[in-house]
Every structure is written in C-alpha cells, then in structure tokens.
Amino acid sequence: MIKMALAAGLLTVGAAYMATGLIEDALPARPERTAAAPPSRLEEARPGHVSLSAGPDGHFRVDATIGGRRVPMLVDTGATVVALSYENGESLGLVSGGDRFDARVATANGSVGAKRVVLRDVRIGSVKVDDVAAVVLSPGAMDGALLGMSFLGRLRRIESARDRLVLER
C-alpha cells in the first residue's frame, strides 16, 4: 500500500508555477478521451470520503462535477493542475474565441498554450474543493480532462492500494 502525505509544499510549488507562467505539467499530448471510457466505480463510505476502482487499463476515471456540470476526467497525480481541453473550457463557459492562451504547459509533444482559470468548485461524489486552479489548453492540444494536484493536493488523504484509490476531504 502506498500512502501519500500531501504537504503544503506541493501546492506551493504548483502555485509558483501558475504565478510565473512556467507550468511544467507532464501532460500526455493527447490522452485517451475520458468520455469514451466509463468512469471508475465510485463508493462512498461516509461524506467527504470516496473510493474509486481502477479501470481494466489500471487508470482511475471520474465523472467530476465542475460548477454543477458533469466533466469526465482522468485522475493524474503527475499533473500540477487540473487541465481541461478547449472543448471542456468552452462548454463550462471558461473560454471564448478571443481568449489568449499565453501560459505555457509542457506535454509529451512539447509546449502548448493554455489559459489559467480558477474553477469555483470541483466535486467527486461527496468530496468537494472550492476555488481550484486549472488550465484550459489551446484548441486541439488535448482531448478530455485531467484531475491534477491543484484538486488532489487539497485533500486530507489520498491512498492507493492495488486497484483502489481513496480520496478524503
């Protein structure tokens, strides 16, 4: 069993990258469409505590709720911030045609443009975090969405064991 103690230092590093525009996420260039794969089975033992089952490929997928809207996401502890495709950002009302994507994000295919945003709230079952830093990537840069450390790092506990992931607020 791997237990991760999430220190404030991790969030501070992410915030520093956000402030300087030097966001260094190890984002996959074009991850699998999270909408195509079903979300992980989610169980709630008590409020503020969810347990996810890994999919057949070993990944954890969730149907997050962002500002009251469902967004399929891939859980990614290697991503500094929550990352949304342009299409996700557009459907959530976070971007429009005239927006600038002047933050740089490192992906497997190189650097891409992104727009920094703050999500009012992100919810996975009964686990809710307010004011979550995120980026919306430029059109065509990524399919789907990643649930990164700007959300995960604000939880009290993340615990991974075999094919289970526990999130606790």
TrEMBL record:
Its EC number is 3.4.23.-. Residues 30-56 are annotated as: Disordered. Residues 30-40 have a biased composition (Low complexity). It comes from the Bacteria. It holds the Pfam family gag-asp_proteas. GO terms for molecular function: aspartic-type endopeptidase activity. Keywords: Hydrolase, Protease, Signal. GO terms for biological process: proteolysis. Transmembrane segments: none annotated. Residues 1-18 form the signal peptide. CDD domains: retropepsin_like_bacteria. InterPro entries: Aspartic_peptidase_AS, Clan_AA_Asp_peptidase_C, Peptidase_aspartic_dom_sf, Retropepsin-like_bacterial. NCBIfam families: clan_AA_DTGA (TIGR02281). This is TIGR02281 family clan AA aspartic protease. It comes from Hansschlegelia zhihuaiae. The lineage of its organism: Bacteria, Pseudomonadati, Pseudomonadota, Alphaproteobacteria, Hyphomicrobiales.
